[in-house]
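Support request, please re-run this one:
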Amino acid sequence: MLSSELEDAVPLDEFFRSGGFSAALNTYAATHGGTDRRAVASMWSLYYFSTLTIPYIVARRADRALPVAAQNMTIALAEDGLPRALGLAGVGDWSEGEDGDLLSFVMPLVSQHLAEVVAQLKAHGGIAPKLAWNNAAVYIDYAFNATERERAGDGDAWASRPLFSEPHLPDGSANPFLGCLRHEAEGRETVCRRKVCCLRYLLPGIPSCGDLCALPAQRKQ
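Re-run finished. Output below.
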């Protein structure tokens, strides 16, 4: 949403640096019964990253680049402490003619937003950066693959493959998504798997993510 239309929103940098994030984790833990701080922070980040990356990738596929610089965004929370919505400073820029390269798409996300938020998740939520990047990766993968099928209907069955196989981003920096997801043959099927477990199994009442889970023992729970 536009920040000007988002009720009860606070600037994102203020939210993380003034204790708002820690308070949100406490609220979520109290509401849902989570006692493992890392698992609570990881689950919170899954909601956050889905709210951020899915609309961004879908808009990018529709030739619009949303302004996602963290210092210019706001956040509003639900009653249980989870992200309710993110606020943007504007509607973004038209970007017709782009070639649809996912590595280029994620550059603004990484440099202007995700790197900062991943650092905050570690500092105040105790989760390792490799876990946070993996949590973001699953939603980027989902959004790009879904929109690729809508646009093309054929080609590589895993449209986002380069994001997880290329060692560097277009600017030459290390690719934080390298290896986060992989496709493995299991019988006659190909399944997608995370590299790092999201720890949801440590939270009461939260179902397993199934075959996507990095831990074999949790895939059928």
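The CA atoms of residues 116 and 129 lie 11 Å apart. Residues 37-61 form the longest helix (25 residues).
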